[in-house]
C-alpha cells in the first residue's frame, strides 16, 4: 500500500522507517510545517535525517499530502481533546476522498467516535486505530476477534508513566515528587506529565475501548477519572502490609469508563512493573484473556499501525 | 442446598482449609466456618474455643495457621463447627464478648473482606468519625487499621482499613465509602473487584 504519514514524531517516523519491511511504500510524510511528497516513494532515510537534524522534512506544504496518490493516511499527529483537531479534519478529508485511515492519534477516536463512523459509512475507505490503545499490545484486534458483543469488560494498566512512578514509589519507599523527577530524568515522563499522572491519557484509551464495545457514545467527559498525584509513598507501604499494591487501573464496559488508583494483589497479573502495560479482556464465553507488553514508544506503536495497514481491504 | 454457607467460604479467603466433603446436616444442624484472629499467647486458642462449646456448637475442625501471621502479628485460626442456625449468632456474639477478634463468621454474614486505603487530612477530618460512619453506613465491621503519618498528623496521611462486609455487598459498600471520602475530601483507593485481579 502507498502510505501518507501525517505527523513526524516518534510514531510517524517509525512507521516510515519500518514500512518497507512490511511491504509498503511511503509516498508522503508531513510535520506541522513542511512535507516530503513523492508519488514514486520518498527517500525515507534522507527525510528522517533532515527531521532529526531540525531541517524541514521536505519542500512541499503539509496540504500537498492530500493531493498525492496514496492508499492509506496514517494520522500520527499529537492527540488533542474536545474537537480533536486537526486530527479529525485530516481523517475526514481522507475518508471523503475514499481513502483508508489508520490512526495513532487518540483524540478523534475518543472524542468524536460517532462522527468518524458516520464518515466511514459514507466512504469506500475504512478506519482502524489499534495503535491508540496499548501500543504494541493487540487489544482492539483481540476484541474484534472475540466480537465486541461477547466482551463484557476491559480493564488494565494503560499508562506506562504512571505505572513507572507507582512501581518506583513502592519499591524504593519514595514520594511522588521525587520519583516523578527521576522519571523525567530518565525520559519516562515528559516535562509536562499532567496527562499521564492525572489519568487523562489512560482515560482516553478506555473511552476508545468503551466506544468499541458499545459502538460509540462515549467521550472523555463521560469518564470518571482520578490520577495518582495525591498518592503518598505511605499509602503504598500500607497496601503492602496486606500483600497489595496500588496501580492506576482503567475499566471500560458498555455502561461506563472509570480510571483511578486501585488496590491490586502485589503478585497479581495487573501489578505489572515499570512502563509495562497490561490489558484484561473479560469475555462472556471464554473467560478472561490478558495481554501485556510495551504500550508506548515509536517502533512499538508503529508495529500496531502497520498491523492495521495489513488488515485493511485492498482498494 | 443452594446457599449452604459451608460452600462459599473457601472462595472468599482462598484458603484450602475446608475442602473435602460437605458435612452432614442432621436435625436442623448446619455447618459454619468462623475465622478468628488470635494473639500469640499460651491458652488463647482454648479461650477462643470455649464460647463455641458453651453455646451449643459442635467443633468439627480447627485449622490453626501458625506461621501465617497477620499484619498486626496475630495468628489466623479457622474453625469449622456445626450448630442449629438459631444458635450461630449467639456463638459469634459470645466470641466477640470474650474479646476474640472474629474476622469472618459463616458465609452469609460478613462473608467478605475488603481493604481500602484512605489518603488525605485524616486526622483533621476526624478519622474515628470517618471509620464509625463507614461501619454504620456500610454495615461493616472494622477488622484492622493501620495509619501512616510520616510527615506528622497535620500533613497528608494514609490509613488502610480492612472491613468485613456482607456477601455480595462490596459494590454497595464501596459506593458508600466513596461518598464519605468525597465529602471529607479524602482520596479513597479502592480494591479492584472482579476478574482475575
Supply the key terms.
heterodimer; A: alpha/beta; Rossmann fold; Dihydrodipicolinate Reductase, domain 2; 6-stranded mixed sheet; 12 helices; B: 197 residues; alpha+beta; 4-stranded antiparallel sheet; 5 helices; globular; disordered N terminus
Enumerate the strands of the largest sheet of chain A in spatial order, edge to edge or round the barrel.
3-2-1-4-5-6
How many domains of chain A? The number is 2
CATH topology of the largest domain in chain A: Dihydrodipicolinate Reductase, domain 2
**Strand composition percent of chain A:** 15-25%
Task: Give helix and strand order of chain B, one letter per element, not per position.
Answer: HEHEEHEEHEEHE
Strand portion of chain B: 25-35%
CATH class call of the largest domain in chain A: Alpha Beta
Major sheet summary line of chain A:
6 strands, mixed
Distance between the termini of chain A: 9 Å
What's the tally of helices of chain A? 12
Please identify the structural class of chain A as seen in this structure: alpha/beta
Strand and helix order of chain A: EHEEHEHEHHEHEHHHHEHEEEEH
Low-confidence stretches of chain B: 1-26
Name the CATH architecture of the largest domain in chain A. 2-Layer Sandwich
Number of strands of chain A: 12
The stretches of 5 or more residues of chain A where confidence is low (pLDDT under 50) are none
Class per helix and strand makeup of chain B? alpha+beta
- Oligomerization state: heterodimer
Helical region count of chain B? 5
Give a verbal description of the structure.
The complex is a heterodimer of chains A (315) and B (197). Chain A is 37% helix and 21% strand. Chain A has helices spanning 10-19, 44-52, 87-96, 106-111, 113-122, 140-146, 160-172, 176-185, 194-197, 200-214, 233-241, 298-311; strands at residues 2-6, 25-30, 35-37, 72-75, 100-103, 127-128, 151-157, 223-225, 244-252, 257-265, 276-283, 288-294. In chain A, strand 11 and strand 12 (288-294) form a beta hairpin. Chain B has 197 residues and is of the alpha+beta class. Chain B contains five helices and eight strands. Chain B has a four-stranded antiparallel β-sheet with strand order 2-3-1-4, sandwiched between helices. A four-stranded antiparallel β-sheet of chain B has the order 6-7-5-8, with helices on one face. Chains A and B meet through helix 11, strand 9 and strand 10 of A and strand 5, strand 7 and strand 8 of B.
